[in-house]
Amino acid sequence: MRLHDLGEFGFIDSVRRFTHCSRADVILAIGDDCAVIETSSGDRLAVTTDAMLEGRHFRLDWLTPYQVGSRAMTACLSDVAAMGAEPCFAFVSTALPPRMEVEEAENLVRGVVDQAERFGACLLGGDTIAAHEHVGLDIILLGRCREHIWRRDGACVGDVLAVTGDLGGSAAAVAAKSAGLEGIPCWHRYAAPVPRVAQAAALNSLGAITACLDVSDGLVQDAGHLCERSGVGIAIRAGLVPISEETRKVAQDLRSDPLTWALTGGEDFELLFTAPAEAMPELQDAAGIALTVVGEVVPGSEVVVTGEDDQPLALQSGGWNHFGARS
Ligand code: ADP
Ligand code: MG
Q: If you compute the radius of gyration of the chain from its CA atoms, what whole number of angstroms results?
């Protein structure tokens, strides 16, 4: 069997099956946005790592090295935010082709450092290796957990499913750039996404969120992770999914459906969470950003998206899967 048959998530499942961690200080191992470990002083640390490769995850004719570094850091910050944790310590490993300009290489790491520092974390080390051709980077980020650790496995039947901000902007930007459009209104959503670190801090103390993850692979696919880990089904109403005016404008220009981007586009880096419906007003008061209920947690095991007429929508692709291209 080839990796593209097994898929990214099938592969991660295999890895999970041959790990046997029985240490008492591991609170959460493979399968969430971060692992969580407990130190002897009782602190709980959330740890995540994310790798990005030129040509696969970014193009240096679309983004500056600084933006590439900053985006890569954002992916990690978003995972730490998804645990409700506070970003603290970062490490970056870079694979750099020797022909690369020193200034560009420095700017790549400067992007990592500045984005980490913007959100309260600092870079403490890493590794540097030579690459044949393509630039690669891998970031490890540690965060300090707050009172409530937001896991993927806590969603309860009856909870609502809600999302911060809006969705599809990053996928819209990529579609517009690929089509050769200039002056793309939502380009910043792809080039300089903002991780929801501050919102996580504001929401955590309320204790109302039952499960959370960040939208990195696409709403439907990421909601699927909640289903799988929590043993529930999720019903999403397409008509409720928040889409910005900027994203709608791009869809108009390209004669595309913005809903497809919002449901299946990746790298929005919004928080997707479940909570009791009655907690939504106080969550909204604290959030400092629009929260939108997009569905609810139901008995079952999968994600169903319904359209205007309450009929299930047939989706062309579920979201991002690193080996299968689109699942
Ligand atoms: P996210 O999109 O939140 O970064 P991923 O889908 O990349 O999460 O990963 C899901 C889980 O699988 C995480 O717990 C991650 O640490 C784990 N994981 C991914 N790849 C590997 C690997 N090669 N070995 C071990 N664990 C992995
Ligand atoms: Mg994540």
A: 19
